[in-house]
Amino acid sequence: MPQFEAAGAQVLGVSADHAATLDAFTKLNPLKHGLASDFRRTMLPAYGAIVTDEKSPIYRYAKRAYFVIDREGVVRYVKVMDNALDLLQPEDLLKALKESGAS
Q1: Domain membership of residue 56 as a residue range
Q2: For tag attachment on the chain, is the N or C end more exposed, with fewer CB atoms within 10 Å?
Q3: pTM confidence score
Q4: From the CB of residue 34, how many other CB atoms can be counted at a distance below 10 Å?
């Protein structure tokens, strides 16, 4: 995470899991960034980061998504992955951060 801090950014993970689940997870897996719960699923749909197809077996599951949001709260970059196992490389996100002008 130092490269994001050096770029003037903060990293925050958001999960649809309950806060107690996230607490247990972070005790076993120390993270270098914050982790927030959207258990009531209020934020994830607003950002298009949740499965909304009621016929889907993963209905209301969170999608893996990446956002760059500037200091004024303006979304400058969005990448929502179709497959939760697909990861964006840190270099790609740093590039998006720099190109967005958000840092």
Answers
A1: 2-94
A2: N
A3: 0.79
A4: 11
